TrEMBL record:
Keywords: Amino-acid biosynthesis, Aminotransferase, Arginine biosynthesis, Cytoplasm, Pyridoxal phosphate, Transferase. It holds the Pfam family Aminotran_3. Its EC number is 2.6.1.11. Gene3D superfamilies: Aspartate Aminotransferase, domain 1 (3.90.1150.10), Type I PLP-dependent aspartate aminotransferase-like (Major domain) (3.40.640.10). This is Acetylornithine aminotransferase. The gene is argD. It comes from Tamilnaduibacter salinus. Its cofactor is pyridoxal 5'-phosphate. GO terms for biological process: L-arginine biosynthetic process.
Amino acid sequence: MTNNTITREMFDDVMVPNYAPASMIPVKGRGSRVWDQEGNEYVDFAGGIAVTALGHAHPGLVGALKDQATKIWHLSNVMTNEPAIHLAQTLCHLTFAERVFFANSGGEANEAAFKLARRHAWQHHGEDKHEIIAFRNSFHGRTLFTVSVGGQPKYLEGFEPAPGGIRHAEFNNLDSVKELISSKTCAVVVEPVQGEGGVLPGDPEFLKGLRELCDEHDALLVFDEVQSGVGRTGHLYAYQHYGVTPDILTTAKALGGGFPIGAMLTTAEIAQSLSVGTHGSTYGGNPLACAVAQRVIDVVSQPEVLKGVRERSKTFRDGLKWIGDKYDLFDEVRGEGLLLGGVLSETWKGRAKEVLKAAAEEGVMVLVAGPNVVRLAPSLIIPESDIEEGLERFEKAVKRLVG
């Protein structure tokens, strides 16, 4: 080992201990394969937590980055840059949106969305209309505001006092929303598919009911599509699958295919509430990020790519169900498109991290969504051969755990 070799132990010496990364260190990726420092190969079913939508080192994304890197890297927001305008035009063309705000992450996109919802209500209805309704087990980011809106108290522990005016209902239970919503409600915030909360899809009637309740109470409907967006469900955005149009939508993760970028999408009328000076971001709309995201959207929005997501979803579901039945591993396999969750059976309850670790040891990368759900969020264009081999490796891992 040379002095330049990076080790897992070095993480503990120099990094804040809020993460607990795996022992292996990936150094190269291509498509849906990853190699670590020792040359061990892995099939990637994790996708960087639903981020690497086109796999690793996609030639189109590499080309877009290199091309923009020779032009201009950064401009402050007192200037207009071409890639940002081009990307905003594309997002507006492909969605309900008429205006876009760029940020660097999903948390920042959600922060902007929640601020916009409150300011819009303040301008049009007064300061009493400020309450936000969100859902238990939701996840919207790690800023103090977004973690407060998120419905998982463990992420807020030790950071109180939290911002007020936030109430939590039960996901997929419209009656629980009816009990909370009032003339004080400025927004209802929901993930159409709960990701961190266990890969739980929203019921169509539930999401339609939220739209109707928001309309009745002059509240805005905010869809957090940070994880479910950019082709993940087999539609460019999940709201298009459900036929329920929000007032504000947030997107990040796969939007940059691995390059940090987030965006908040809304209508022209609502966007007016964020007038000059009310919100901002130093790096939001960065030319490098927008150039890469443009290429991502150009590829993912193609009908054949979205169709391929739905076809691959069936292959994964069938394979996971077969493994689940053979080893009594899963009670159900749920999710949409290539955001899938295997819900562990009573026999395996609480062992999701064990499954993840064993899978890595057999050469396949998976995720968890809490202690009882194994989560998959692979590349949207993962080859069938990689799916087959990855599932074979996954079965070996489960078999080894069975003993």
